Every structure is written in structure tokens, then in C-alpha cells.
Amino acid sequence: MAKRILVPLDEAVPAESMVEAVGALARSTGATVRLLHVAPRPDSLTDDYGHVLVYADQESARLEAEALDYLRAAAIGLEDVALEYGVRYGDAVDEILEEARAWNADLVAMATRGRSCIGRALIGSVAENVFRKAPMAVTLYRAERPQPA
To answer: Contact at 8 Å (CB) between 112 and 61?
Structure first.
């Protein structure tokens, strides 16, 4: 029975239905859910003349604020679940696995686009790599594709 569920979220994959399913699981088991966003490692931004426009720590603070806003919006409907939020920087697979280990997660629940075998082979999949490398249970949810209007 999962008591600590890590849910990595990325705006590129619609995850609303997955968050609802994870919420139902957390409610039934009394689990804590940690929503995680992995952002690219921030760099200082410079102009064409090499003058620093934004320092890396300022960019880091901006990225973290945006990520937390996104995670809080994704958590709508989970008000009755014990929630935590996390933001990491770097390679998505490495950071998800490190967060799962550091937080002592029992389960990692991820959304996936559900690409074909050829698509995964050519592009790779963060969810598939986490699934292969994680020492704990991993549940993959196929992201719902928007229906044409």
C-alpha cells in the first residue's frame, strides 16, 4: 500500500486525469502526495555584448515561482489530500529518481503520451526511463488526448 506517492508533472503532457486518479488512491490509503516539477538548469542571460541581464539565481527564483504556480493549479481538487510540492533543476529522469529516493517514495505516478515503439526509440521517454530505472513501483498513466471540436 503506497503511503508516499511522487507525481512528476510537466506542462507538455496533460495530466489532469492522472492527478484525479492519484487523488483517489491517496484518499483510499491515506497517502501523502508530492507533486514535482523538473525545470531546466537556469543559466545567466546575457545580451549580444556579454552584459549580464539576469543572473542564474534570479532566473532560478523565477522558474521556481512559475513551477509552484503550475503545481498548485494542477492540485485543484486535491484539497482533502496531504500535499507537498517540489521543484528540481536538471535532467528530468535523474532528478525524478533522486527526488523519489530522497523523499522515500513508495510509488511514482507519471503521465505518458503513449508514443509508439518507434517514437520511443527515436525520441526516448522520460516516463519509460524512470519506469526502467526506479527501484520502487512506477505507475504510468496514458495522457488523454484532446478531442477535436
So the answer is: no
**Entry pTM:** 0.83
What domains sit in the chain, N to C, each tagged with a CATH number?
Answer: 9-115+128-142 (3.40.50.620)
Q: Please give the angle made by the CA atoms of 35, 91 and 75, to the nearest 5 degrees.
A: 15
| pLDDT band at residue 123 using 50, 70 and 90 as cut-offs | very low
Q: For 55, phi and psi rounded to 5 degrees?
A: -80, 155
As to burial, measured by CB atoms within 10 angstroms (0-12 exposed, 13-18 middle, 19+ buried), residue 128 is: middle
Residues 34 and 79: their CA atoms lie apart, in Å, by 13
Per-residue pLDDT tens over the stretch 38-79: 998 887 777 788 877 777 778 888 889 999 999 999 998 898
Whether 111 contacts 14, CB under 8 Å: yes
Residue 144 C-alpha cell reads as 488523454
